[in-house]
């Protein structure tokens, strides 16, 4: 694995499977009476959040704490950033405090990349969402959730048909998912009004459709994206009502899905907009499970980046082939 | 499979020996535990798990019961994590009834520095509180670096640090045997 996790494209198929398999083991820790491992004792993980987030920050915090790392939460609001400090000066401050990993969320696409490849800090950088660019750990936890329902431990998602519906234009989740799911062999179809598809989407490793009903019947999983009102500075669709009638998932559409298919949502949900309450509360909706899996995935990522002298090597090597690799 | 020494490695235990040794250990466990009612076998991946399963079968034969068997991955409890790239994890599988109040027998293939077992004891402490913990190993090759000993030993094989002890098991390597060889390179990279 690379030292930083900036994009889902940083992960090879072996890397991605290693993260998913490691997360399977991390998930078992959650079922134990003592939900803690000593593995990252003495390591410091900084959560550097320039943008509002509850579940991602809490998820990373829980993951780091379960691995016994020290966690420092840094949010831009009420910090020196609101006094005009630059990303560089913030980074140098964190470096001086001895951060082994920086988990960064930023409203600007590319900020984590800048932080990682700038020499400002020596630790690993994990992208927890940057602008409309990427959110690789979300894609990993989505793939983990899909794998649990559609294939199984140790396997990839070859041949599984995943439909991603909604505001692809503003969605870092969609971009990371398209890249990662492609790496894992899934066939991805994006469904969105033409105004909510990014320029250049035809070059992405996926299909594009404007007709939700046409693709539902052959989907193994449907991922509903949140309509990001806060990024909507233009008229992307006539009315919310029209959007939800054409691209929202209601009970009727859910019934058109194959028996085994699951409905996913990265949260937070706009009930009544992209997803009806009926669907959101149905047992086929994995939204809550995705949150739970997020902690396991982030534990896996932090462990694989920080758990050794250097990030894990994903060449499929058995863990202990003989006694003499140390006791 | 690891380093092959300049001299060919030679078998010190063959398949029938391993079978006999496991039968004896099973009997010893039953004898010391006065039955195997509260015994839980936990193998240390990879080969310890196979050995634990075999021991469980033998215990079932002897006692007519069903001994719970599981696996205990110690990777995240190792004391040398920072000496190498992060390692892949192996499966931890604790039997449904847990380990609280039970007699846990840890099973591993080779006892060497004792660091694996130290890690296993730490891992076990986060899972529950057994009545007692014992250790069964197929081979004890000496060179302990910690105050740890085995309760059941298949075979003591005095070795030098330049030698390697490799356990092959059918489930993993296609055949049963224990090979004694010589490593190239210095023993310091142990």
From TrEMBL, chain A:
GO function term, MF aspect, one: aspartate carbamoyltransferase activity
SUPFAM superfamilies: Aspartate/ornithine carbamoyltransferase
Enzyme Commission number(s): 2.1.3.2
Catalytic activity of the protein: carbamoyl phosphate + L-aspartate = N-carbamoyl-L-aspartate + phosphate + H(+)
Enzyme class: transferase
Record-level GO BP terms: 'de novo' pyrimidine nucleobase biosynthetic process; 'de novo' UMP biosynthetic process; amino acid metabolic process
Boundaries of every Aspartate/ornithine carbamoyltransferase Asp/Orn-binding domain copy: 159-305
PANTHER family: ASPARTATE CARBAMOYLTRANSFERASE, ORNITHINE CARBAMOYLTRANSFERASE, MITOCHONDRIAL
Full protein name: Aspartate carbamoyltransferase
Gene behind the chain: pyrB
Automatic annotation (TrEMBL), chain B:
GO molecular function (one): uracil phosphoribosyltransferase activity
A matching Pfam family: Pribosyltran
Domain annotation Phosphoribosyltransferase: ranges: 13-158
Positions of short motif PRPP-binding: 104-116
Protein's GO biological process: regulation of DNA-templated transcription
Source organism (scientific name): Actinacidiphila glaucinigra
Top-level EC class as recorded in UniProt: transferase
The protein's name in its UniProt record: Bifunctional protein PyrR
Record-linked InterPro entries: PRTase-like, PRTase_dom, PyrR, PyrR_bifunctional
EC number: 2.4.2.9
General function of this protein: Also displays a weak uracil phosphoribosyltransferase activity which is not physiologically significant.
PANTHER family, alphabetized: BIFUNCTIONAL PROTEIN PYRR
SUPFAM superfamilies to which the protein is assigned, alphabetical: PRTase-like (SSF53271)
Keywords carried by this UniProt record: Glycosyltransferase, Transcription, Transcription regulation, Transferase
Entry similarity comment: Belongs to the purine/pyrimidine phosphoribosyltransferase family. PyrR subfamily.
Catalytic activity: UMP + diphosphate = 5-phospho-alpha-D-ribose 1-diphosphate + uracil
């Amino acid at each position: 694995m690379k030292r930083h996790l900036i994009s889902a494209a940083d992960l090879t198929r072996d890397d991605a499977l290693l993260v998913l398999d490691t997360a399977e083991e991390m998930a078992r820790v959650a079922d134990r009476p003592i939900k803690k491992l000593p593995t990252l004792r003495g390591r410091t993980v900084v959560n550097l959040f320039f943008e509002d987030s509850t579940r991602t920050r809490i998820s990373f915090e829980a993951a780091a704490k379960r691995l016994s790392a020290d966690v420092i939460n840094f949010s831009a609001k009420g910090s020196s950033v609101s006094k005009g400090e630059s990303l560089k000066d913030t980074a140098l401050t964190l470096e001086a405090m001895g951060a082994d990993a920086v988990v960064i969320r930023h409203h600007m696409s590319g900020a984590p990349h800048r932080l990682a490849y700038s020499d400002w800090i020596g630790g690993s950088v994990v992208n927890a969402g940057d602008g409309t660019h990427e959110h690789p750990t979300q894609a990993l936890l989505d793939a983990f959730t899909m794998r649990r329902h559609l294939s199984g431990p140790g396997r990839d998602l070859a041949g599984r048909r995943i439909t991603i519906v909604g505001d692809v234009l503003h969605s870092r989740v969609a971009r990371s998912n398209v890249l990662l799911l492609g790496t894992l062999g899934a066939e991805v179809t994006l469904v969105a009004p033409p105004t909510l598809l990014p320029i250049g989407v035809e070059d992405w490793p996926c299909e594009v459709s404007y007709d939700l009903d046409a693709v539902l019947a052959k989907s193994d999983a449907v991922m509903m994206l949140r309509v990001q009102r806060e990024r909507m500075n233009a008229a992307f669709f006539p009315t919310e009502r029209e959007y939800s009638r054409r691209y929202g998932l209601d009970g009727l559409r859910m019934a058109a899905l194959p028996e085994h298919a699951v409905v996913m949502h990265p949260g937070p949900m706009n009930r009544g907009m992209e997803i009806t309450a009926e669907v959101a509360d149905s047992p086929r909706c994995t939204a809550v499970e995705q949150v739970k899996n997020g902690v396991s995935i982030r534990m896996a990522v932090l462990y694989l980046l920080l758990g050794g002298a250097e990030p894990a090597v994903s060449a499929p090597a058995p863990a202990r082939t003989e006694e003499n690799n140390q006791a | 499979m690891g380093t092959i020494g300049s001299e060919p490695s030679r078998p010190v235990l063959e398949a029938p020996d391993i079978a006999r040794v496991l039968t004896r250990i099973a009997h010893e466990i039953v004898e010391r535990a006065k039955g195997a009612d509260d015994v839980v076998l936990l193998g240390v991946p990879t080969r310890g798990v196979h050995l634990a399963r075999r021991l469980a079968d033998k215990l079932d034969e002897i006692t007519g019961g069903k001994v719970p068997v599981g696996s205990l991955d110690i990777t995240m409890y190792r004391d040398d994590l920072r000496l190498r790239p992060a390692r892949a994890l192996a499966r931890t599988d604790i039997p449904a009834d847990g380990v609280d109040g039970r007699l846990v027998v840890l099973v591993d293939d080779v006892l060497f520095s004792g660091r694996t077992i130290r890690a296993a004891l730490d891992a076990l402490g986060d899972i529950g509180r057994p009545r007692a913990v014992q250790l069964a190993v197929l081979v004890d090759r000496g060179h302990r670096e910690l105050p740890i000993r085995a309760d059941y030993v298949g075979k003591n094989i005095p070795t030098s640090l330049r030698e390697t002890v490799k356990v092959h098991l059918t489930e993993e390597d296609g055949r049963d045997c224990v090979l004694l060889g010589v490593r190239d390179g210095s023993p310091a990279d142990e």
